[in-house]
Amino acid sequence: MKAKALTAILAAFMLTMTACGTISPPIQNAVTETTTTTTAESIHDSAASSGAESSLEDEKIKTDTFIAEFFDSDISFVDTSELVAEAMKGCSFDNEIDDSNGVQKITLKGTNGGGSIEVMCIDLSKSGLSYDMEYILENLGDHYFRQTAAQMNGITADDFVSDYRMTSSVVSKGKYQRYASVQKTDGMASQFGYTETYAVLSENKLTVASGAFLSSDMMERQSFSQLMSKFAENVKY
Q: Do residues 172 and 205 lie in contact, with contact meaning Cβ atoms separated by under 8 Å?
């Protein structure tokens, strides 16, 4: 695939990840306020804080550079309709599936909440990337996880009551999984959320299933978690 075509695919794909709006329960409208307090610090503490911020910024630049290189390389998308159809069998949520630019986006709606899952398979056989398998899995996995989790309206990492991350590799294949659950109460209503990214790199093909769901019903969160497990079970490893 030529570079211009890949750039167009990347632009369209990133649009699907960001233009879909936010995920929030249809019944409640929570408002989150953030207050920042600035206090005097010692020269030593300021220097340490500055050093930590500089390190984080360097890491972000490194990651962003990798993501740009990845999508600008000679990659192509593989059809995932069979995987999606199998994993969605018996799904209890109302759903719509949109297949565009190589990405299957599943919009889910429950009685008290909603969410979405995006599924893709990327052929890396002609990419020419010099990064090792574990580096590709970890950086792309974290990238998709952050984008997916950000779709939950009013939810930040501070609201996660669990946050699990795992990367494993055996010979020529590897697996990445990260998930987090949310429970947030404002005194009047509660929100229960779940977000997960599952990625497998095998035979030069990277398969990713990444989703998030937010509801005022804990049981809907549980049902979504089980649905993500079905996607993981159907990804070849």
A: no
Angle of helix 3-18 versus helix 43-72 axis, rounded to 10? 130
Model pTM score: 0.77
How many Å apart are CA 35 and CA 82, to the nearest integer? 47
The CA distance from 142 to 70, in Å, is 14
**Which burial class, exposed, middle or buried, applies to 58 when counting CB atoms under 10 A from its CB (0-12, 13-18, 19+)?**
exposed
In this structure, what DSSP letter does residue 18 have? Answer: H
In this structure, the number of other CB atoms found within 10 A of the CB of residue 232 comes to 17
Q: Mind listing the pLDDT tens digit for each residue in 109-154? A: 999 999 999 999 999 999 999 999 999 999 999 999 999 999 999 9
Distance CA 30, CA 24 (A): 9
Q: E-strand spans in the chain?
A: 76-78, 94-100, 103-109, 113-123, 160-170, 173-185, 190-202, 205-215
Token pair for 200: 């497998």
